[in-house]
Amino acid sequence: MKISLLNSSVFVLVLTLSFSVSWGALSSILEVTPGSEDFISCLESNSKSFASDSQLIFTPANASFLPVWEVAIQNTRYLKPSTPKPSVIVTPVNETLIQTALYCAKKHDYEIRIRSGGHDYEALSYSADVPFVMIDFTNMRSIDVDVANSTAWVQTGATLGELYYAISQKTNTLFFPGGTCPTVGVGGYMGGGGYGNLLRKYGAAADNAVDVRFVDVNGNILDRKLMGEDLFWAIRGGGSSSFGIVLAWKLRLVLVPPKVTVFQINKTLEEGLTEIFYKYQYVAPTIDRNLLIRAQVLSEYIGNTTMKTIRVLFEGIYQGTSDALLPLLDKKFPELGVTREICEEMASVRSIVVFWGLPSSTPVEILTNRSAITKLNNKVKSDYVRTPIPITGLKKIWNKFMENDESALLMMYPFGGRMNDYSETAIPYPHRAGVLLQVLKSVNFNGQTSDTTPTSLSRLVWMQSLEELLTPYVSKNPREAYSNYNDLDLGVGNANYKEASVWGERYWKRGNFKKLIRIKAKVDPHNFFRHPQSIPVFSSPLSSFK
Ligand SMILES: Cc1cc2nc3c(=O)[nH]c(=O)nc-3n(C[C@H](O)[C@H](O)[C@H](O)COP(=O)(O)OP(=O)(O)OC[C@H]3O[C@@H](n4cnc5c(N)ncnc54)[C@H](O)[C@@H]3O)c2cc1C
Ligand SMILES: *[C@@H]1O[C@H](CO)[C@@H](O)[C@H](O)[C@H]1NC(C)=O
Ligand SMILES: *[C@@H]1O[C@H](CO)[C@@H](O)[C@H](O)[C@H]1NC(C)=O
Ligand SMILES: *[C@@H]1O[C@H](CO)[C@@H](O)[C@H](O)[C@H]1NC(C)=O
Ligand SMILES: *[C@@H]1O[C@H](CO)[C@@H](O)[C@H](O)[C@H]1NC(C)=O
Ligand SMILES: *[C@@H]1O[C@H](CO)[C@@H](O)[C@H](O)[C@H]1NC(C)=O
Ligand SMILES: *[C@@H]1O[C@H](CO)[C@@H](O)[C@H](O)[C@H]1NC(C)=O
C-alpha cells in the first residue's frame, strides 16, 4: 500500500513537473499496452540493419516480451501484473542499436531505462510510470581478462559471478574486489560504488575502475579521456544511469593469494552473543586488512520451543592461510572461538560460492548460471555505524528482533582498512574514514502472495520501527545511506536543492551531491536520463551551487 502510494506521488510529480512528456505520451500512460509504432518505425528508418535489429526488439505484441522482461527481475516482489512495463525492450549486441534507440526515444518522448543485472531495489531499471524503452544488456556481457596487465574489460551486462569465473579460468592470484551476490550486474554495481569482501584491503569496486566506454545523451561514444575526469568521477558511485549508458568498464584486478581462508560460526544469546558482538564492533574495523568478518543478525526459535533467541552468523575471509589467521584471531578476538576445524582454505572464486550460502563443494560453474541462483523477495534499507553501539543499544535491537516474525535480517560489513585511505570526495561514494559497519536491513515477503498482504505490510511497519530505534546508534547529519540500496522512502523531491538534499545528501553527502548536480547540468542539461532518484536538473542558475 505504502509502495503504491509512493509510486503514485512520483507519477503526479512527473505529470506536473515534466515539460518534455508530450500529450501523446501522456495518453499512452493510461493504456495497458502503449503503442510504440512511432518508436519502431523511427528505428526502421534510422537503422542500417533493421532485419537483424528487429530480432533484438520486443514489444508487448511479441510472445517473448514478458519472459524477456521477467527473466532478469531479481526481486520477485516486482513480478506482478501491476508493475509498469516498458513499451519496448531493446537487447542490443553492440553500441549501434543503442545509439539508434537513444535517438528514437528522444525523438518520440520515451524515457529510457537501462538494465544490467536487474537487482535494482526499486525496480528502476525495468519499470517506470511513464512510457519508456528498456535497454537490456543481456546480450552484451563479454569479459576480456588481461592477466599480464592485471586488468579486465567487462561489458556491463556481465554479472559479478561471470566476472569472477572468467578471472579464475586464467589465474588464481588475481581477483576483482566486488560483491558476493553472483547475479549482480556489473552495470548497476559499479555505478553505485560497490562494496565486497576485499573492501578492507582494496577499497570499493569503483575505486578500481580505470577506464570506461560510455554513450552520452547525444549518442557519442566516450572513454575516460574523451569524457574528462569530472564525468568519469560522477559515474563511479553517483549512479551511472543519471549520466548516460555505460557499455563497458576497464577494471583493475588485484593480487590475492592462491588460497584464502574462510570460516563461519554462529553465536546466540545463550553463547554470549551480546558481549561478542560488542567487541566485534571494535575489532572487525581495525584488525589486519587481510581479514574481513561480516555478521548476519536474525531471530529464531530455540529448537522446538516457543522461546526465541538472536543468532549472529559471523563469516570470515582471510587473504592468507589458516596458519597465519589463527594466531591473529587468538590475539585480537579469542571470544569468537574460531578453531582450525572450522577454517577452510580455498581459491577466491570458491569463497564467493560459500559467501552466497552454498556448500563449498558446489561447482564454481554455478557462478555463471543465472537461473541456478535464488532470487530474493525483499525490501532493504541501509545505515552506517560510526560509534560502537553500547550494550544497552544492542539489547534494544535484539528485543526489536524478537518482535519480528523471522522475516528480518541485518547484514553488517566492517569497513576500515583501505576504506579509510580514500577521502570522501575521491569518488561520489562518501562512506569512508570512520565508518565501523555498513548495515543492510532487510525484511522479506517470503510465504506471502505479494508485498501488500497484511503480513507483508506489518513487516514493513516493523522495519520502520527498527529504523526509528536505530536512530541514536547510526550516522547523523546526514544519516548516511548506500545508493545501491536505493530506497524511495527516503524521498523523491527534486524541484530544488532543498528538496533533493533530503535524499541526495544521505547517499552522497553535500559536497559530492552538489558536484554531481553540476556535472549533470553540463552533460545532460535537459535531464533526459532520469528516474525518481536520479541526479536532478534545476531551473535556477548553476552559480547558486558553486
Ligand atoms: C541479492 C543482492 C545482493 C547484493 N549484494 C551487494 C554487494 O555485495 N555489494 C554491493 O555493493 N551491492 C550489492 N547489492 C546492491 C547492488 O549493487 C545494486 O542493486 C546494483 O544497482 C545492482 O546492479 P544490477 O546491474 O544488477 O541492477 P540493475 O537493476 O540492472 O541496475 C541498477 C541501476 O543501475 C543502472 N544501470 C544498470 N546498467 C547500467 C548501464 N550499463 N549504464 C548505466 N546505468 C546502468 C540501472 O538503470 C539502475 O538505475 C546487492 C543487491 C542484491 C539484490
Ligand atoms: C551491430 O549489431 C547489428 C544488429 O543490431 C548488426 O547488424 C551489426 O552487424 C553489428 N555490428 C558489428 C560491427 O558487429
Ligand atoms: C517481434 O515482432 C515483430 C513484428 O512481428 C517482429 O518483426 C520482430 O522480429 C519480433 N521480435 C523478435 C525478437 O522476435
Ligand atoms: C598491456 O596493455 C597494453 C595497452 O592496452 C597493451 O598494448 C599490452 O599488449 C598489454 N600487455 C600485455 C603483456 O598484454
Ligand atoms: C548456523 O545456524 C543455522 C541455524 O541453526 C544452521 O543452519 C547453520 O548451519 C549454522 N552454521 C554454522 C556454520 O554453524
Ligand atoms: C522437534 O520436533 C520434531 C517433531 O516433533 C522432533 O522430531 C525433533 O526431534 C524435535 N527437535 C528438538 C530439538 O527437540
Ligand atoms: C543452470 O541451473 C539450472 C537450475 O539449477 C539447471 O537446470 C541448468 O541445467 C543449469 N545450466 C547449466 C548450463 O549448468
TrEMBL record:
Keywords: FAD, Flavoprotein, Glycoprotein, Signal. GO terms for molecular function: FAD binding; oxidoreductase activity. Residues 1-24 form the signal peptide. It holds the Pfam family BBE. Its cofactor is FAD. The keyword Transmembrane does not apply. Coiled coil: none annotated. Residues 82-256 form the FAD-binding PCMH-type domain. The keyword Amino-acid biosynthesis does not apply. Belongs to the oxygen-dependent FAD-linked oxidoreductase family. This is FAD-binding PCMH-type domain-containing protein. It comes from Lactuca sativa (Garden lettuce).
